[in-house]
Amino acid sequence: MKSILSRLAATTTVAAAVPLMAMVSAPANAATVSTAAGPTMSRPLHCYAWVSNSRPKNHTDVSVMVATEAYARITTIAHFSGKNSMRTGKADRKGDATITYYINSAKPGYKVVVSVMATSGHRFGSCWTSFTPRR
Q1: pLDDT digits (tens, 9 = 90+) for 37-63
Q2: Is residue 58 domain-shared with residue 111, that is, in the same domain?
Q3: Domain range spanning residue 83?
Q4: What is the DSSP letter of 55?
Q5: Helix (H, G, I), strand (E, B), or coil: what is residue 9?
Q6: What local confidence, expressed as pLDDT, does residue 7 receive?
Q7: Cβ(135)–Cβ(108) below 8 Å
Q8: DSSP annotation of 69
Q9: Which ranges constitute the DSSP H helices of 12-130?
Q10: Angle, CA of 12, 17 and 22, to the nearest 5°
Q11: For 84-111, what is the HEC assignment?
């Protein structure tokens, strides 16, 4: 062992030899510890959304169906012509959720985009769907 370190020291600087000495003297079954700075990136939460009826009549319900991960919290925002309407819910154990909007007096022909956000712990995902009300 001493001869390996002597040869390394002869060909490298002292600053570089110190970490090499620690690596050579570490036991073979030692765990590796990363010293990289910064937060670790989580994989995004998957999010798929669709509506029960893309052309609903006024004074009817339209359901926004969401598929994500189990028990994720769901927030939807329907962007109507005059206002935004937010609803929340939670996915079931299969990752499915249904959020219902009552179409009261939406402007016929105006495309309503529904933004969807799914969160679980520190992870999130987003998606969207849309519908166009009719008379």
Answers
A1: 545 567 889 999 999 999 999 999 999
A2: yes
A3: 48-131
A4: S
A5: helix
A6: 42
A7: yes
A8: S
A9: 14-25
A10: 155
A11: EEEEEEECCCCCEEEEEEEECCCCCCCC
pLDDT tens digits, one per residue of 94-123: 999 999 999 988 899 999 999 999 999 999
Report yes or no on 126 lying in a domain.
yes
What CATH code is carried by the domain that includes residue 82? 2.60.40.10
Residue 39: per-residue pLDDT = 56
Query: Can you tell me the mean pLDDT for 4-10?
Result: 41
pLDDT of residue 42: 78
Which positions ≥6 away from 42 have C-beta within 8 Å? 122, 123
How many independent structural domains does the chain possess? 2
Contacts of residue 20, defined as CB under 8 A and 6 or more positions apart, other chains included, come to: 5, 8, 12
Rounded distance between C-alpha atoms, residue 58 and residue 30, angstroms: 67
